[in-house]
Amino acid sequence: MTIRPEWTIRQGRHDDIERLVAFSQAMALETEGRRLEVDRLRRGTQALLNSAAHGFFLVAAQAQTGQVVGQLMITYEWSDWRNASFWWIQSVYVDPAWRRQGVFRTLHATVIERAKADPGVCGLRLYVESENNVAQDVYRRVGLKSSSYSVFETDFVLGHARSLKDRPDEA
Q: What CATH number does the domain containing 154 carry?
């Protein structure tokens, strides 16, 4: 029997910023082949840490050492149909050394628990790169289901996302 380490799930703090930025950079590169501008990313992360109106980070820390090994970010979408907010799960990342050990499952369970306890939350949403089958399988295993909606966007900062097939550095 494998003994799994226990995870401490807590809200991201200002002293986590370097780890949060590093994880977000790694996630963008791994999932979309994007190299994010670190100063913009740091300012965006700091803005969220400074204002609960934007959302919040949850981190998973290894219980014995306190080392942050995973993260996710929650942002809000108001639904007039439900008179409540959806929590969007974003910026999901688990350090590769800690994957397949229950880190995301524990983070997700914490989000579910917190969201259900808040009467102002009507549900959870998450978007995933259409070709990221590994992540999609993980999300299905924790009970998330595909939506009938597709996401369309006009991105004024990063521009149009290219599919993995269109990236010459991935060939």
A: 3.40.630.30
